[in-house]
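Q&A log
Question type: sequence-to-structure
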Amino acid sequence: MLVALSGGVDSSVVACLLKAHGHDVVGVHLSLWQDPRAPACAKILPSKCCTAQALHRAKSVARLLGIPFHIVSLKREFKRVVVDPFVAAYARGITPNPCVLCNPTFKFAHLLKLAKKWKCDKIATGHYARLKEKTDARGRKYTALLVANDSRKDQSYYLYRLSDSERLHSLFPLGTLKKSAVYVLAKKWKIPLDRANYRESQNLCFFPEKDALPFLRRYVRGNHSGPIKTREGKTVGMHAGLPFYTIGQRRGLRIGGLTIPLYVVAKHSRHNVLVVAPRGELRSDSITITQLHWIGPAPAERRKIPLDVRIRSLGERIGGTLVRTGKRAIFHFAKSTFDGIAPGQSAVLYRREEIVGGGIIT
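Response status: OK
Response body:
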């Protein structure tokens, strides 16, 4: 069994669990690209997974278990496949979610290649999600993706684009556990972890800051300030460059002195204008989804299929109906939502505890 050891408590417990259940475990740590332009003082944040401290913890767990441990450098490939498209999308005014695309096109793809190389039957990660073998209406078997038992840690949103083969050859041992139980197991197995100073890995792994804005300012070029306008055309401020803002954003606009808060509702690249409006104007009745990916059978075309949708990783699941037409689908909300829906984000579709599929919001 090949275990992706990031150095965090989750992947460490996975390795211990599998070893305790009699599996032959091999650990691997993927060394990925880190922003060389980031200020040195920011690189010591404890809430990032791809750090020297995380690698040290992964090595310690491998020694504790007495398992083979490999460090595989994929820095160049990671920058090309994940980081560069992320920067390019922001430069075009889109708000991407690189974790959703990294999992199937990069992380799991490489882990499966390494598993085959080292003769491992499956790969195991510390993701909070569940897998279950199911049979569709036509009698065809498939590996379904289900939400985790711990709803506060559920990561099914990030995994909906995994291929059939990637799901079939993967294990998520933590999907049935609560996070509190994982900490109990970490203590039981004496996993080297300073609970007082340890922080869960958060946000994106390839820059050290807590949000993307400083990173984007270092890498997105050719952007110019311009007016911030209301829908009526009144100028209420100046923006620092359209890529540095996202739909639904309220903080950081620097347009004080107004009687009601305003939110970003549109970005007009042609005229370099950022459009703001009161929260009520963020209301959406539907979203259009492309780049569709299905788990199991695809929904019937041109029929209203009742489903739930989630447009943020741990956001509210919103009920409604999906209408698919070929490679495009429209999800109609049962009630209008105030969420700032940004093109480029994923819309993940659920039927009870099962993830049906999803796509990219356009």
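Response note: The two ends are 39 Å apart (CA to CA).
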